Amino acid sequence: MLDNEGEESLKSTFSTFMAEGDQLFHKGQYSKAIERYSTALQLQPGDRNCLVARSRCYVKMGEAINALKDAEASLKNKKKFFKGLYQKAEALYGMGDFEFALVFYHRGHKLRPELQEFRLGIQKAEEAITNSVGSPSSVKLENKRDLSSFHKVDEHKKAQPKNFIHPLKRDRSPYRQKTLRSERTAKQLLGELYTDKQYLEKLLKDEDLIKGKTRSGEKLQDVIMDCISYLDTRTKFWQQQKPIYAHERDRKAREQQRSRARNRPPSDPTFYVLKNLEDMDAELAAGNTESSLKKAQEVLKKVQGWSEKVLPNKTEVMGNLYSFIGNALMDLGNMGKALENHFKDLELAQQSKLMDSKSRALDNIGRVYARIGKFHQAVKVWEEKIPLVQDELEKAWLFHEIGHCYLEMRSHTKARDYGIQSLSAANNIRDEKWQLNANVLVAQAELKLGNYESSVLYFETALDQARALQDDDASAAIQKALQETRQQMPQ
Q1: Which CA distances in Å does 13 have to 19, 31, 61, 427?
Q2: Tens digits of per-residue pLDDT, 380-418?
Q3: pLDDT bracket for residue 134 (50, 70, 90)
Q4: What is the pTM of this model?
């Protein structure tokens, strides 16, 4: 009993130091924040979130080397920890290693494509490379740094720098033997990644470079060939998923939209909306939630004064703005106002029969209800969303969240049933993360229902998945739950 109390006391103290560090960071008192985080790490050595937080302080203070050490420590035994990847990229960027920062921004973007931070990181790294080296043809790539990050090509194969190109003479390459037609197809399907592929093909022609090895002993030639092979495989995949004419049509549509926006005067409504949406996203990604909220409210007020003739997609734009404002308010903890804006988004979507917008609004409304503990309302809203969902990944998430709400409501049979549906959707796309989450949910529901053997089986499966994902925190929690479940089994 005393051991448990001591453990809880340590956790409480750790959380206190973390909270104090966060407050000091937001006040700009980075040195003092580092002291708090360092004390917290003495209580819980190796805590990933604390290491990332301290790394963030070091970046702000210009101590990029210390920032890099903490970021790399947070990635120990968990290479896909996206917060650590972002901090590593930020530290490398601060050190001026823009090419390698770009690699880790890309790697994080592949893991969490919905996060704006990684997209902005990619953009600023590419701009820094261009500004620092000038014309790509003037750059000499030197084999001095550790390129072992290119070894695990399954994590970031599209992360090769676009503008860091070595001047190479033309000679043999197995990839140059393709027909012009297949090259055109690859260019259309890969889009911006096609320049990455060309860059890699040119590297193969540098005989001095390809003879080199990474620190892990991997031949650079093999690493480059693996990356190119990945892009070729991706080309084939995209070609199967979507006809070439559709890719070409979408590309031209995007280019025309950007071109129209650039060519229009600042007074043009479409230009105004697009520009402000970009600015709002940037503000939000930078952590300036209040500033982005204020801008969104200003844009909404202006759009409301326009007619459908001035802005043909006025309803859709207003829905997007209400959604943005609702999410910003939710981040700021103003759940009542957040709910109001998401309901306005829903109302516009229903009036104009915009199914995607309706699905988005129901999603957000459910999240607000769940955050404030109104699980009955969350379930009601999310169950209305189910017929609108086609994507298996979204199904896995949605069924899991509904099941978790039922678990909170002590409706254990429904919790188990939704957990099984979530698991089925996750299995269909072989998503390990959601397979893990769904197995834990089913195990918890079965435990509450007194089905101990079944609960043990699901916990055991979840434990194997957590270990495969190298998620130490999840493994420890599941191991503890598994032991407690086994103790409750009748002898």
Answers
A1: 10, 20, 26, 40
A2: 999 999 999 888 888 999 999 999 999 989 999 999 999
A3: very low
A4: 0.48
